[in-house]
Amino acid sequence: MKNLAIRRLLIGVLFLCVSNLSAQEQQQVSGKVTDDNGSPLPGANVQYADSNKGTVTDADGYYQIVVDEGATLIFSYIGYKAQTIKVGSRTTVDVVLSQNALLEEVVVIGYGTSRQEDLTGAISSLSSDDFEQQPVIRAEDALQARAAGVQVTKNTGAPGGDVKIRIRGSNSISFSNQPLVVIDGVIGGTLQSLNPNDIASIDVLKDASATAVYGSRGANGVIVVSTKKGEGGAKFDIEYFSSFSKIPKKIPLLSPEQFAEISGIDVVDGGTDYQDAYFRTALLHSVQLSTSGAADGLSYFVSGNYVDQEGIVFNSGYQRFSLRSNLELQANDKLKIGLNLFGSREHRHNVFFGGAGTAGDRRGGILGILGWDPTKPIRNPDGSYYQLQSSVGNILVNPVAVQTELDNNRLQDRFNANFNLSYDISESLNYRAIVGGAFQFVNNENYAGIPDGTTILSPIASYLSRRSDNYQISNILTWDKQIGASQLKLTGVFEEQAVQWRSASGRSGEFAIGGLKEAFYLLELGTDPSLEADREKSAIRSYVGRGELNFKDNLLLTATLRVDESSNFRKENRTGYFPSVSAAYSFQKLLPSNEYLDNVKLRLGYGEVGNQNVGALNTFSELPLGRDFAFDGDNEVVGLGTPTFKDLNLKWETTKQFNAGLDFFLVDSRILLKVDWFRKNTVDLLLRKPVPLYSGGGTFLTNVGEVQNTGVDLGLSASIINTDKFQWNANLNLSAVKNEAIDLGGQEQILIGAFSGSSSGSSFAIRVGEPLGQFYGATFLGTWKTADQSTGQVPGTSKYALDESGNPVLGVIGNGTPELTWGWNNTISYKNINLNFLLRGVHGFEVFNQTYSSLMFPANSGSASHADYLDRWTAENETEIPAGGTNLASTRYVEKGDFVRLSNITVSYTLEEFAPFRSVQVYVSGQNLLTITSYTGFDPEVSSSGASGSDGAVSFDSGAFPNPRTATIGVKIGL
Amino acid sequence: MNYLNSIYRTFFISLSLLFVINACTELEENPGAVQLAPGTLTSVETLEALITGMYRTVQNEARWSNFFIAGYSGDDITTFSGGNKVGFREADWRAQTPASDRLVRAYRGAYNMIAIANTAINAKEAIEGDREIIDRLIGETHFMRAFAYLHLTRTYGEVPVQLNVNDPQILRKASFQELYELIEADLLEAERLLPDVYPGIQATGIRPSKGAAKAFLARLYMHWAGFPLNESDKYGLAATKSKEVIDGGFGYDLSPSLRSMWTVGNRFAHSEGVFTMVFCDEVCGTGNRTTGRLGLPLEAKGWSETFGEIAFFEDMEAAAMAEGTTTRFEDTYVLEVLPRGDEPNGAEWRNFDIEPHPILRKVVGGDMSEVSVVNSTNNAINRYFMRYADVLLTYAEASGRSGNSSTEAWEALNKVRRRAAGLDPNIAAPSIDITSGDLAELAFTERKWELAGEFERWHDLVRTNRVVEAFANRSPDEAVDVVNSKTPETSGKYLYFSPIPQAELDNSPQLND
Q1: Which of A253, A307, A599, A826 could form a disulfide with A665 if both were Cys (CB 3.0 to 4.6 A apart)?
Q2: A88 and A110: one domain?
Q3: B99 and A264: CB-CB below 8 Å?
Q4: Which pLDDT score is estimated for A371?
Q5: What is the dihedral of CA A179, A184, A185, A189, to 10 degrees?
């Protein structure tokens, strides 16, 4: 309902702004045609509508023309939006043409580019203009809610945490559904370390006709990032901003007095508010420097960025340094050579599981804080801990002490070098080479002075060192020829990519010397340190062919075939063929001249893409290590486990997608509406089938089953108001996806836990005919009452729906996969003031509030800490809140997750030519300032199940790290 | 400019040649470099490592109280009603459902052992090396598999039998008869292959000998003779097998002190272990988590996981007074200061705050001065899956039940009684010894006191079908449900055997009853 209202409002406003002027008698008209900056446009067309009469502007942009009464003039210029103007009684008509961003925008489609107008596939494009009005430190923030069909979920509020991106739903049950990232032509990049200020454009390839050129890696969609290039005169830009972040709210807990009364203990010194002790107002600093320009055939873009972000949990944070140098040399009229270098260092301090957990022990962190005995002070006056353990509450080790004595550092360095070369062999034949190397070095240091858990253990430390090397060589040959009124473009690619990582790690504890701090550098001092080393290699060799035909600008045809050979599979199954075809038809010439509807384009496409991302050696059984045992109770000897079960015939997962889209170019192409319908079926699912416990348990990986996603993407971009002083640009996008498991290889359902090591057992069910992400559990009916005692029930315990034999009925109790997402981004400028706001909504899903469960029924022996426990069942007041008994995963903990969020609001003030500066901008901004939701936990967006885990398990809040509310102030200076 | 152009052209041509001739990527995988292929299971070393891995697999599960979940149903052991102890409470009161907490560990642990055992047994023909060592290791594997199936059937009743490796075939429950026959066959094979004394171990029982195989055969026959199959002729076989253990020279002997077997200092200083799990707390971190602090009450900042039941304590105290076996009574319960928290006195357990219960020494630790052990929930106290006193009493009971109450059988009973009285078990003690009466029942009762707190009592109650009787003997001071007077179940389909866990039923619905 809300969406509809917003759309109506938007369209209404649009039509108000398109003014109609009335016509009068014959006259001479003159004027000047300029661009947005007031520069004259020489040679612009001034066309007398409905005739071939017309003129062009002179060197200074002036024109003169005699027209009839009621005439309409069309002003056009290549690369600019045409304007149709009724002259009326005027004799002077000055026209400002603005660059035609919507039509002429170049879209990077993989191994080539295309004009927006020529697209046949489903692609969402963003340029830096779309997000530069929001202070972002991560590329994912730039993408969030700005592209139809792309769902960006900030799964965690942890600094440097993983961000979940899904393009048109989830295909894979057992494997990650994160899309492929391609940066400047190099496959398999990452957005998380990328400096968002380096991004020139992001093109999201959504349908299979677009992604098929990436073959066996394209099934989850492809995000193609192009970084900036220098142009024009030398420019130097500085940006600095600073943010303050806070937890969005506090969870209502028992006060120390209430807690003490229930547990029969005493409050000392007023107790402690552990939420206040754990969370803080976190500060962020971001500094950005860049210089760019072009001279003598050499264009350059050089940037540096430093981000220092505190976590809203004390003693946690994230730092990133990055440097980029993009150089491109136009050596002569045929040869272009480019070298892009990128280096970054990220340092995550005390961030676990990619931010999906707030502590190394899943029970600790936020869960630990909320459930801990609040009745005592944290420290004694002498600074020592008042108590490290309590026999009430969640009985874990004091989580504030754990966090204080924790030193976990993940240092991640990346170095990417990307050499590219383009040579025009003849007028129509071009050869391009991309040679890329991506190197990554990770050190993971961990020291727990007071380890998490239920017992006081001596300090433990570990150290991990890992490097990965990724090479890619792509040879691209393009033949592009105008044949009559048609254009034919053929592309051939030969490509190889190899990735290898090596790692070594060690851990120890029981240190011979006490009082160590950074004991990960002193593992030798521990008792019997353990060691591990490993290596993994994989490679892909590929051949791609693509043909694109533009027939008289009316009919566009594209066909591609990619052949991939992957080392992850045995020889017989190694080669995959991924074809696609797509077509687009422009109805422009069939449409009657109409000032509202400029063009309508129909797009149709079908393609097949794959998923080969199973990792190396997945078809070779092994005897697992790590089952060592000490027969003398002291010295372990090597032990092996049972051979893992492997499917020798393992092969790709294949996603077949059909897409139909309509593009409407409205009101002088000031409005572009794209609507796409798609259906994709993923077959031969790479599925981890559960092995019965009686056969050793675990899972085995095989190709069975099918998942279907059907949906609609809608993108509406509009330049609503476009006058000299006042501009309003808006972008509305909306995606609805229906997901369904069609076949699970003969089984009716597969039950899975929320994450590995999840204490709550199977919380999710994947069932034939139902979407992924189904919560599995009992139906909660309140409490058994005193009156039920006669039937053998215990009053005050949880009442669940029971079967005939009296066991709780287990079934689907909710779903964690959103059905509908939308984003509405607005940029409004008036003179020097600019306002940007981004609203987004996520609808049609539930959240499993395991946090609440653990606060009402602690998983370890102990007592409840949530304020709701005050209203628990008693014999005198028989409420529906159980006082004890068995606690199952049930409807009691399933809550509606729908939310609407003000993701960003920024107000900026810009001064151009503010000597000695080119421009100066100051801004204030807020992120997540407002969230409308009925969810009772911290944040309905976050999940403990991680960004790249199985999409069978989503929206599971078990102490998940909430996204903070943030206020930012910043300044941008251009020199 | 031309000069520059020619440089560029040369550069370009050489680079493109480089790229076009770059089909050098290796697409064949070479697993041997980084992992051990099952094909390497042809050597004694690999077999040894696999069996070592089997011990670790048991240890991973048996270090938790959940592995002994059925044992909580015995009248010797109870738990606490609060928090996460609900799973133990449901076992204690035989009120389990498939979804009960803590039910899956014994099931999963036993089948994980079985999976490794099946791997070794199915590969035995391919293994080359010293025959004597291979026999010993394969014998040990059969013993371990029998141990696992016995633990399964004693806990869950009828369960599926898996003897293959990575076999996707769907299995149904096997009958008690089939299970017993399988366990018997494995133990007979173990008996044939194992040496009298296992080489290179620090105390008996750490790895099984021929004697251990015989002792477990005796345990199997006791179950076979009793509930549910009631083939009472198996009592004779139980007597024979246990007698062979006693006569066989396998090195077993009663420890002079009962309590010192539950200390870390003396864990290897006796020969009473028939099959023992040793733990490695400090170095490996795989300590015993069924012992130590988790047997302490809230006053001593304990976990309140495993306590003694009140009626059992009172009955044992009375019997100890009457029979002069107070040493054993004091070795079974902690009746001194618990050195932790508010340092309450174990003898004054009735004054404890919430749900007061006696403190089991076999859980908390044999020696309160081993403070680090008592303070820990991760320590190196041994777990005795079977000890020699059990064999002696099995012999006495089986002899009585098979109508052969021999002098040797009475002597076996009296050895245990003498130690219980603090005397040398091997020297006759007329004041303690008994030589007349119903030997079977006397031995059965002796087992009750001797094995209290070792998760064995419940299985004795099941095989003799005395569950309801035992539940009837319940102290009025015993904990009842938070609200009303709910007490243990005395009927229902899960009275004797626990349900197969929901985690298994979810994926194997054919195992539903």
Answers
A1: A599
A2: no
A3: no
A4: 92
A5: -40
